[in-house]
Specification:
single chain; alpha/beta; Rossmann fold; 4 domains; five-stranded parallel β-sheet; 17 helices; disordered N terminus
Amino acid sequence: MQTLATSRRLLWIGPSVNLPLHPDWDVARMSDPIHALGALRGGGAYHAVIVQLPLPDWTPEEWLEESHRAAPAIPCVFTGPESLPLPDLMRIVKLGAFHYLPADTPAGQVQQAIEQAFDYRDRVRRNDSPEAWRHILVGNSPAMQAILETVRLVAQRRSTVLITGETGTGKEMVARAIHAAGNRSRLQMVAVNCSALPENLLEAELFGHVKGAFTGAIQHRVGRFEQANNSTLFLDEIAEMPLDLQTKLLRVLQEREFQRLGSSDSVKVDVRVIAACNVDPLESIRLGKFREDLYYRLNVVPIQVPSLRERLSDVPVLVHHFLEKICRHEGIPAKKVSDETIDRLSRYSWPGNVRQLENAVEMAVALSGDRDTLYPGDFPLPSVAARKLPQPAAVPTQIAMPEDGIDFEHVIGAIERNLLEQALRRSNGNKKAAAELLRLKRTTLTAKLKSLETRVAC
């Protein structure tokens, strides 16, 4: 994380500066909170405020209320002689405190926390325009324009949103656009990947725990729902959440309250939930992996993000977007892309979707060296895929029906089983390759194989 040296200005409110701050930061100290509020209102271009507790004649809540009126974009970090009790800490965090740092916090952690505050202030300043959220989603295709319009319509509501689409299509970016366009954007969106943790750890991650709630719980932990109070919680890969935890999530969505692990006290929250999954939720319901009532509770506003191969007209604008971003981050002069390269990239099937395209552009920048133009050779994509998607193979549409009728399910099942067996033989048992041959998701192929095994067993 890069420090901006003396361009970073801190306003310290309190009797003395007792945290190990970076020597290049410009620190202004004021002991009077009233004078400090005047400095903030006067546009002193501070990047963060540090308030030393206790603050004479002021509670932290009173300071947060007044400072947010004076300068809502400037994050406030509190410090004090010792750690705050969990209820006090949660109260000031819910009211908008960016961080709390006890006086004995190690220097590295102090500087990292304040750098995060700087980053937050920069993001807020960049997104000051009411329409700035539109830059999060890149694309001019009709499909992307429809998503932009849906985002605009639902952003100010508290309605839950379920975003579906293949891996790499940009579901999290849609969630971030909804959050940025809404009235909760003053606080950061909180994101959780529901497939990344086992059930016991995921529950603690979402709802938090008290000290001693389970082996290894050596201190209180604030869960993601509490962190997202008055903001947005993004639950990625929601269909991978264990069923028992789905039940608890349903209750939180209905009651707007939950209990930390190891505690019987209820915690009320105001959280806008956006969920996403890269599998067909109805198929997961059929397989008994996803609660139907939770699906309908989440699917108030559905958004289907198309695959990149369904919006190939967006490839040129995406390439230029990623190229500009990567060159800026690398600190190198902007590069161009030849027309031949754009044409080739626009005819590729992109099985990894937008994420694969971004990685390909980043690799091309690295391989191009000092050249200012990217050519097809900088994108070593498989030539077999660098063409229009193949037309579906001819499928027989007529089956002779006997005079006495036919067992529809048996016939269709036999055809399905035959195709699955052929694909598995051709791919030497590789399910991922077999799924690609059948134009299926791997999870769908696996579900169909299990279904066939169940039928045989019966």
